[in-house]
Write a sequence for this structure.
């Protein structure tokens, strides 16, 4: 990805995550005081499920760009840096995809 | 011998912290913590997709002292990163670069992150 593109996407993604993450954290704090079926009902709500998926996908995307930036500054060994970047990329794709699967089929 | 008044900073152990540098590094650290927070969210949903007994056990863990401490920590790192991020966006638009303004906005970010964390927890737990 080109640096300018990264810079813009990092900021655009932050605008999407900002409201969602506040809603989601407050919801999780609330769910922590409730039981299993309350949590299942919450995530079975189609709107909440869709918002959760958007948050997870864009959240990990935003995290990946941020991690790339940090690796760029602090990891000086190119091979280790490449591996770290690949790990960030892979986890930012696999975790959201599994989450999508869980929300559709398992919860 | 005359007093040597040459500044010794920056040096890693005697570095004089400024609000600007403190917030800069904390923005990065909180970003990494939020990445871990996202993984915890994933783990939460994973536990929910297993049997009820597993989820109940997960609830017990997050509701004990250490669990609550960790969750509050993640909430703080989220609110801090969010507010500090807004500060960065304002800079991107070309405002707030004066030293006085930047210091003031930095202090506002630190204090607001603590207030917001408290507010989110009181709200989430149903106290307000």
């Amino acid at each position: 990805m080109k640096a300018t593109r990264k810079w813009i996407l990092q900021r655009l993604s932050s605008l999407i995550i900002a409201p969602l993450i506040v809603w989601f954290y407050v919801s999780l704090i609330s769910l922590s005081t409730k039981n299993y079926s309350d949590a299942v009902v919450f995530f079975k709500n189609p709107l909440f499920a869709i918002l959760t998926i958007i948050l997870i996908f864009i959240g990990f995307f935003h995290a990946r760009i941020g991690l790339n930036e940090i690796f760029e500054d602090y990891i000086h060994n190119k091979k280790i840096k490449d591996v770290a970047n690949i790990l960030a990329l892979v986890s930012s794709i696999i975790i959201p995809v599994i989450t999508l699967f869980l929300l559709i089929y398992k919860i | 011998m005359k007093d040597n008044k040459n500044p010794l900073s920056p040096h890693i152990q005697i570095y004089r912290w400024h609000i600007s540098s403190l917030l800069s590094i904390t923005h990065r650290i909180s970003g990494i913590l939020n990445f871990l927070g996202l993984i915890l969210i994933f783990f939460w949903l994973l536990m929910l997709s297993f049997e009820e007994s597993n989820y109940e056990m997960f609830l017990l863990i997050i509701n004990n002292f250490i669990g609550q401490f960790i969750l509050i920590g993640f909430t703080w790192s989220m609110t801090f990163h969010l507010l500090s991020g807004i500060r960065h966006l304002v800079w991107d638009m070309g405002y707030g670069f004066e030293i006085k303004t930047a210091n003031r906005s930095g202090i506002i970010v630190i204090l607001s992150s603590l207030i917001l964390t408290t507010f989110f927890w009181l709200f989430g737990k149903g106290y307000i």
Remarks:
- The mean pLDDT of chain A is 97.
- Residues 54 and 72 of chain A are 27 Å apart (CA to CA).
- The first helix of chain A runs from residue 3 to 31.
